[in-house]
Amino acid sequence: MLPEITPTQLKQRLEQGEDLQLIDVREPEEWEICNLGGTLVPLEELSNRVEEFDKLKTSVLICHHGFRSAQALAYLQHRHGFMNLLNLKGGVHAWAQEVDPTFPVY
């Protein structure tokens, strides 16, 4: 089963000051419309940028609806041994619906 975090859970953890690595695997054009911060690493660049991330830190993978981030999670877990990974369930679209209705959607 894919380890997930809901937008509400992510918001709570961020508000509590938890040191999470946010990895957004969308395209730069999508990032410009809206983002939750963190690091933008388009999915096709992930394999070349793995060394930028701390394997020991909890990482939340983010995309538009949660599909690309699920692919990224599986890749990091199976190919590079990352263990502390969470997929943002429903992506930034769900964040706009559940957490922040003023958050831009596309």
From TrEMBL:
InterPro entries according to UniProt: GlpE_sulfurtransferase (IPR050229), Rhodanese-like_dom (IPR001763), Rhodanese-like_dom_sf (IPR036873)
Pfam families for this protein: Rhodanese (PF00581)
SUPFAM superfamilies recorded: Rhodanese/Cell cycle control phosphatase
Domain Rhodanese per the UniProt entry, residue ranges: 16-104
PROSITE patterns given in the database record: RHODANESE_3
The protein's name: Rhodanese-like domain-containing protein
Species in which this protein is naturally found: Rufibacter roseus
